[in-house]
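B., you asked whether I could sanity-check this one before it goes into the benchmark set. Here's the sequence:
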Amino acid sequence: MTRYLALFGSINVGGNRLKMADLRYAFEREEFENVEAVVASGNVLFDFDDRPTEGLEELFAYMMRERFDIDSFVAVRTREEVRAAVEDNPFVGVGEDKFVHTHFLESQPSDEQFDKLVSDHQGRGEEKLALGNRCLYIDYVNGVGDSKLTAAFIERRLGCRGTARNVRSLARILTKM
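And here's what the prediction gave me:
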C-alpha cells in the first residue's frame, strides 16, 4: 500500500461547507484505508494500491460532485511528492513559513505559461514565483490575504487549476504521513 495525500481545493470556503467526518466516510466507502483528515479542512491522508495520482484526482473530483454537490479540484500526491514540494521550494528558509506556499497544480504548465504568469504579475505585488514539478512555489512576502496573486489569476495564466498549502502545514502533514 502507498500512503497518499489528497488536497482538496474550495472546501469550507464560498459556501462549500463539508464536515471532515463526512469526507472521511466517503473515502472509507470507496475502500480506501487508514483515512485521516489532517491539519485543516481539505487535507486527507489515505492508503491505497500504488497507482498514478491523476486517476485518483479524477475519482475524488467525481466523488465530490456526486456525493456532496461540490465542484472541487483535488491534487493527490505521494509522501515523496509532498516532501519534494517542501524541499524543492526555493523560498523555504528565506521567507516566513506561513507565507511560503506550494501551489499544487493539476498539470505541468509550459515554460511559456509560467513566463506569462510572471510577466502579467509584474508590478502587482512583491510575491516571488518559481515553477516546480506540477506545482508553483510562491513566497507571498506580505501575506496571502491582500495579495493580488489569486488562484483565479494563476489559473488563467497557467491554464490549470490548483490548491495551495503553506510549508508549515506541509511539514506537519509530512510528519503524519
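One thing to flag: The chain has two domains: 2-80, 81-176. Otherwise nothing jumped out at me.
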